Amino acid sequence: MSGSQNQYDVVYIGQPLEDDSLNFTSIEPENLAGCRGEIGDFTLKLKAGGEEAESKLSTASIVINLPYREELPLEEADSLSGDLSHLLEGENEKPLIIIQDYPDLSPAAVSKWGLEAALKARENSEQRDIYYFYKAMRFMEENDELYERARSQEVIFLKHDLGELNIDKDGVEYKREDIELELEGDLVMAPRLSPAQGTEELAKKLNIEQDEKGYLQKNNVYLQPTLSGKRGVYVLSGARGPNALTYQEEEISYTLTELKRNLRGVEEIDDEEREIDDQKCIVCYTCQRVCPHGAVQRDDELNSMTIMDKACQGCNLCISRCPAGAITRSGEEERELSAGTQVIICENSASIARDKAENDPLQGLEVEEVPCVSTVKRENIFSRLAAGESEVLVLGCISEACKHLTGHDRCEQVIEKAKDDMQKLDLDDSRLQYHRLSPRMAQDLSTFLQEWKGEVST
Amino acid sequence: MSRIGVIGGGIAGCTVAAELAEAGEEVLLLEKDGELGGNIKNFGCKATDSCTKCNMCLVDSIFNQVSESGSIETHFNTIVRDCLDQGDNYSLVVEDDYGEKQVQDLSEIVVATGYTRWSQLETGTPEIFSDERIVWASDFEDMLEGRKDQLSGRSLEMELGYQPDSAVFLQCNGSRSLQEKARYCSRVCCGYNYRMAQVLRHSFPEMDLSIFFIDMQEAGFLVELSFADLEEEEIDYYNCKPLRIEREDEGLILHYEDQKQGQMETIKTDMLVLSEGIHRNDENERWARIFNLQQDDDGFLRPIWPEEQAGIYLAGTVTSPGDSAATITQSREVASRIINNRALT
Q1: Is A404 on the interface with B (CB under 8 A)?
Q2: Which of A105, A144, A440 sits opposite B184 (nearest CB)?
Q3: Residue pLDDT, tens place only, B80-106
Q4: pLDDT digits over B244-261, tens only?
């Protein structure tokens, strides 16, 4: 049905979550051609394939739920993630050898699979030797009980980092100060896990960022447990991060409740209107590139960029970076710069720490509170330095604890460039300072400012 | 207009309250202390030069949301004594500085009364409490709240009365032990002790740092904790629990079995940080009676009636051990469930 718009509550890229109340469809990652729109109203374009023509889906939310790529340390072994019934059932007399944490520690879900496999094998054969090689037994759900039960049923647990373990297709050798074992039997191993197939392509098409390892969730506290940088796009399992299996239950139940909530309508993040003037916009895509939340897209009819109101998280970074000055916001005020020391603080860190401190540590200073310090501009810093004829202090968030994901890094870049300029102009660059703190550092802030005020005034 | 009652102003209760308020519900939040925060109130940020994902900024943003919300009425120094089922809503009998009274017309109730620190339960060896070189991890947390090293770029000041050159973190206290009435792994201590060790390593590159544990666990949604990470940070690790601790003037001597060599070894340290597992709230029995709930084998609370049906919901560590991020996640989900159910009726 070419061109028809199918309306869904959620589109799963990969495996759908079990829930009857949601109207959903699922697609394979390689079938996605592109994505437009925002939470509540995404449009996914699907590639033509086979007999199917190019088509479009419309959906309130998007969930990426893809399995990890798995690789076994030894090809001949069976994988703990696979179907092991042929090894565990029947009157098998061969020893069962389970190995996890080889070479790196496996997530807790692997311990669960391993313990369940050991107990299943024991259930079917009282005589069989069962060896369990591991470095750390990791706990989730009922693992504690499974582990105790396996121990009491004579599964032999051996920490392989306390000895020497050699594995090849003919068998397993284990040596420790007091034990020497040469084993042949059914070998079951934990697979090594890496990001799901196609994450890189998905990141591009959905305009979300990958972490260092290639997963689709940035390593940022504000995204826990399954948020991507883009509102309404959720990432689970092998698309999310290295230990997602352990938190599968949390991931699923959290995501399902969010999906239902999204259907009841989504509020904008604040009351401000942010607009791009289509007469001024030069369609350079800077705003789209810098937006940490995937909230900017091109409007083909207007031939201008536009901000999506519900996707926007209010950091104002686009406004500060637009080379054409085409973006405005309703709450913007002309700030009269007064004399004195200028301090720019982030509402998510320094502002909270300030409120917690006993006496206002910023008293007597010219303070501007911003949603994210990434919005500071060089020209702005210089006009402040000129107006105040004194110092400028910028207080941002700790790296990787920024609500707008990369704001701290962007701010640091601006500060460094401004300092370069100051040096070129023969100005004292210590007049400009940038520091990072968390909202829990009220005492740190007070002490620091007290000393700094002292230095500045002399 | 009917409100939703939330009992407990810790991170679980505050998360539920903030989410409900954001969805347009009116909330009555009851806190037994004089301020919001509960157990997590005085924990410190454990950032080095970047975030170690201790979640305290996330926690504070939620407390801030609650303080600033116009839809949340918070009563401090208020203890819940009883719950009266009025058919289609509940009344709570509460006690504050002015005596006992009833708060009425609560459509749902959220029990978010948290856990009890293991160090507050009077178990453990007495020597632990007398030696200044032996500290609880939670005390170390509180000490980090007062840290003054990040902005000024100085070294961390520890309020110990001396500057330790070495520290040992001892895991699995009050967890995985029948004697301590907690057979389970709390799944939080490996994460927080690793983060504290990172803070020390960042501040004192020369310090000797070691961790003892039975099995190293994961450290939350975002941190993949591995032996390689410990090696990279030059934190020594021991795959066992020490068998004996001697207190000498020159340091604490820990005796442990080196299983690789099959012999007893010792390690000397200036400071010993004891992890604390998460234990059932010592008032869980009372909550179970008041709200018609049951306790599981470890003493945590479970609903008897489906939460949706009874209108009594459980949030946070009152139901099971969990770290701050997991608690926030679970509490958001509780709030969403309440909102979804209210939309249905």
Answers
A1: no
A2: A144
A3: 999 999 988 999 999 999 999 999 999
A4: 999 999 999 999 998 888
Cβ within 8 Å of B, A 86-125: 104-105, 107-108
In CATH, the architecture of A5-66+195-263 is: 3-Layer(bba) Sandwich (3.50)
The residue assigned the tokens 């303070």 is: A367
**Runs of H (alpha helix) within A176-316:** 199-206, 248-263, 286-290
Q: Cβ(A35)–Cβ(A43) under 8 Å? A: yes
Distance, in Å, from the CA atom of B144 to the CA atom of A146, rounded to the nearest integer, reads: 37
Tens of pLDDT along B18-43? 999 999 999 999 999 999 999 999 89
Chain B contacts of A438, Cβ < 8 Å?
A: 45, 47, 51, 56-57, 60, 150
Give me the phi and psi of B331, to 5 degrees please. Answer: -70, -35
**Which residue in A has a C-alpha nearest to residue B55's C-alpha?**
A221
Amino acid B126: pLDDT: 57
Other C-beta atoms lying within 10 Å of the C-beta of residue A26: 15
B49: chain A residues, CB-CB within 8 Å: 399
Contact flag B58-A451 (C-beta cutoff 8 Å): no
Contacts of B329 in chain A (CB under 8 A): 224-225, 250, 254
The confidence score (pLDDT) of residue B260 equals 83
One-letter amino acid at A304 equals S
Write down the ipTM of this complex: 0.91
Homologous superfamily of the B3-115+280-344 domain (CATH): FAD/NAD(P)-binding domain (3.50.50.60)
Q: Is A211 on the interface with B (CB under 8 A)?
A: no
Q: Which CATH class is domain B118-277?
A: alpha beta
Output the DSSP codes for B54-103. Answer: --HHHHHHHHHHHHH-SSEEEE-S-EEEEEEE-SSSEEEEEEETTEEEEE
Residue for token pair 């604040």: A270
What distance in Å separates residue A266's CA from the closest CA in chain B? Answer: 10
CATH code, A70-193: 3.50.50.60
Task: Provide the percentage of residues in chain A whose pLDDT is more than 90.
Answer: 78
User: Which residue, A250, A228, A219, A239, is CA-closest to A109?
Assistant: A250
Kindly report the pTM of this predicted structure. 0.93
Taking the C-alpha atoms of residue A148 and residue A345, their distance in angstroms, rounded to an integer, is 53
State residue A3's pLDDT score. 42
